[in-house]
Amino acid sequence: MTDDQLQQARQYLAAARRVVVFTGAGISAESGVPTFRGKDATWKGMPAAVASSIGLLEQDLTTAWEWFDYRRTLLKTVVPNPAHIAVAQAETRFEDFLVVTQNVDGLHQKAGSQRIIELHGNIWRGRGLRTGKRYPLPETPLPTLPPRGDHDEPLRPDVVLFGEMLPAGAFEEAEIVASRCDVCLVIGTSGVVYPAALIPFAARDAGAAVIEVNPESTDLTPHMTLSLRGRAGDIVPRLFG
Ligand code: BJW
């Protein structure tokens, strides 16, 4: 990233009234949370994308929970990094500001962000297999797998697995807000998972400046107004203020 690129990004933000911050696993990488498509993204020999699939959950709910509770245990001690904190602190400086995250780790909330759409759910909740009722599940490791809700109903993790629908209305609301923003920051996502990856396109197609923060080039890079190469924790705090 050059100083010129950083200055341009800062100018776009200084002139903006409405901002959408679209985040993926990379924003949490510097907190110690593994990404999905990195070289170490396997568990018991399975790629993360297989462990996080509806196929595994339907076949073997206990093994699916072992994967999620393993991740919950990793996440328990993890804290927001300077990128999450800078995003949270920027919220009140704009007329309209929304975080749209693909992450299930809850770190934007921990950093203090108030307006968040979680497109892929939250790992700290369970959901009834029969009723769909949601339960907070802060304890990890869980005493029994699968955990159970009222009337002994088995719970599944309240996250969106491959092949599943996103929570009702979440994508639609994010798309509407993105299509009205002046700047969309795209932080730490490979942009390969749909429909989430359509959010930056909704912003761009409506005329917003779309600014990527990522150490690597991604599928989204050719469609960006600006791409800032580097780590979120280094770059994001320098974008605001
Ligand atoms: C840094 C950094 C640092 C590193 N700083 N950056 C259209 C076309 C093709 C396929 C489809 C399509 N529409 C739907 C599909 C199918 C499928 C899909 O997208 N497949 C593609 C992969 C091919 N989509 C779905 O199945 C979705 N559902 C759906 O479409 O429903 C409709 C339907 C229903 C039924 C039948 C048919 C249709 C649901 C997708 C759900 C995704 N779920 C997961 C798991 C969540 C639970 C869990 O946590 O386990 O969500 S998968 C995983 O990927 C997770 C993430 O949120 C998501 C995105 O990954 P992300 O965040 O981008 O992470 P990485 O690892 O890919 O990238 C990290 C980036 O960070 C990299 O670029 C690094 O360089 C960067 N980085 N360090 C900044 N320090």
From TrEMBL:
What keywords were assigned to this record?
NAD, Transferase
Q: Please tell me which top-level EC class this enzyme sits in.
A: transferase
Source domain of life is Bacteria
Entry EC number(s): 2.3.1.286
- Per UniProt, residues of the Deacetylase sirtuin-type domain are 1-241
Family annotation (PROSITE patterns): SIRTUIN
**What protein name applies here?**
protein acetyllysine N-acetyltransferase
Please give the organism.
Chloracidobacterium sp. N
